[in-house]
Amino acid sequence: MSSPADGGVQSNISAYWSRHADSYDAYQLERLRHDEVHQTWLNVWRRALPPPPATVLDVGTGTGHVSLLLAELGYSVYGIDLAEGMLDNAGAKAARLPFAPPILAVGDAVAPDFPPESFDVITARYVLWTLRTPAIALANWRRLLRPGGRLVAVDSTWFPDGIRSDPATAKEADFQHLYDDEVLTVLPLAQAISIDATADVVRESGFSDVRVTALDEVLELDRKYGVAPGHHVQTQYLVTAVNGD
Ligand SMILES: C[S@@+](CC[C@H](N)C(=O)[O-])C[C@H]1O[C@@H](n2cnc3c(N)ncnc32)[C@H](O)[C@@H]1O
């Protein structure tokens, strides 16, 4: 599914995430076992999205963290990712849900294969930083949103000092190996020094009412429970925007 233009970079990114799917999911599951973590993330999405019923596309759904929470809240959810290992974990969890599960499929977040105006909301948690051509992706996402539809992203400036010189990621050899200089040149947001860089791409892609909100409640939980290997405790941001004036 990688585009011919990406020089194989996307295949390497997807293979990386598939290789690390089990450990990624184990960490996410361990966190969500704390009820306050579960409730905090439910509240993040509940506040940012219009109330259900609404149809949501979760791009780069990974092991389904967002897709499953949104399904729990009563949304009709589609989740796509190019890393099949990540999707396998999401699918295993979705199969056990007592409510309507998300529909999960292999798909490129840069060019999701759906008819125009299919969705009320597009969500993307921890995806924009590792996305090639985010401006093209965002333009495509606008086409998939109905008029007045919303983009709801969560991300951070994960590596403001550069991935190569970050002491936490230095211990993650496979991560350092993948996110080498060639890959980083096609991921414009991976080493952003401010969340404004993300907001600017969203705005330049034609979205309106672009808002950035620090998720202080998530920061508190990270301080309390710690973060995944290779990460620092740092502020995550909710970036919301509207398709239309
Ligand atoms: C850090 S994980 C985040 C997963 C999930 N959104 C979450 O909140 O836990 C990044 C995900 O983005 C996916 N990804 C990166 N580039 C993608 C692309 N072009 N199309 C689809 N998924 C992509 C990766 O495969 C990975 O599953």
Write the layout of secondary structure elements.
Elements: H1 9-19, H2 21-32, H3 35-48, E1 55-59, H4 65-72, E2 76-81, H5 84-94, E3 103-106, E4 119-125, H6 134-144, E5 145-155, H7 167-170, H8 173-178, H9 181-185, H10 196-204, E6 208-214, H11 216-225, E7 237-242
Parallel strand pairs: 1-2, 1-4, 2-3, 4-5
Antiparallel strand pairs: 5-7, 6-7
Residues 10, 13-14, 17, 28, 60-62, 65-66, 81-83, 86, 108-110, 125-127, 130-131 line the site of S-adenosylmethionine.
Could you describe the 3D structure shown?
This protein is α/β, with parallel strands linked by helices. It has one domain: Vaccinia Virus protein VP39 (Rossmann fold), CATH 3.40.50.150. Helix content is 41%, strand content 19%. The protein has eleven helices and seven strands. The chain has helices at 9-19, 21-32, 35-48, 65-72, 84-94, 134-144, 167-170, 173-178, 181-185, 196-204, 216-225, and strands spanning 55-59, 76-81, 103-106, 119-125, 145-155, 208-214, 237-242. The protein has a seven-stranded mixed beta sheet, with helices on both faces. Helix 4 (65-72) links the parallel strand 1 (55-59) and strand 2. Helix 1 crosses helix 5 and helix 2 runs parallel beside helix 5. The two termini are 33 Å apart. Residues 1-5 have low confidence and may be disordered. The structure holds S-adenosylmethionine (SAM).
